[in-house]
Design brief:
Elements lengths: L4 H13 L5 E14 L2 E13 L5 H11 L17 H10 L2
Antiparallel strand pairs: 1-2
Length: 96
């Protein structure tokens, strides 16, 4: 999650141009409710979904931390069990 569309665009462009992600999808309109600094917070955010490889995950996480405005950005890695072979091949080719 990022705080606004401008930050989403900045991070997305950097990750793709630096070949850390093949694609970054921005999903605006996310409404988050969470506890931070002992208080319940409500925030409108933009969710980013970055498609990368296992090999690029560490550098991707490091770069997001550098670019992100939050002290503790939400970064989760989900294992892909299966996918369209052509799409998975495209991801790998895009990261070279």
């Amino acid at each position: 999650m990022v705080k606004n569309p401008a930050e989403a665009e900045k991070i997305s462009k950097k990750l793709v141009s630096e070949k850390l992600a093949a694609c970054v999808s921005s999903v605006p309109g996310a409404k988050s409710v969470y506890r931070w600094a002992g208080k319940i917070q409500r925030t409108n955010e933009v969710m980013l979904l970055a498609k990368t490889s296992k090999k690029k995950l560490g550098p991707l996480i490091n770069r997001i931390r550098q670019l992100h405005s939050y002290d503790v950005p939400e970064i989760l890695a989900l294992k892909v069990e299966r996918g369209l072979p052509e799409y998975l091949r495209w991801v790998e080719e895009s990261l070279r």
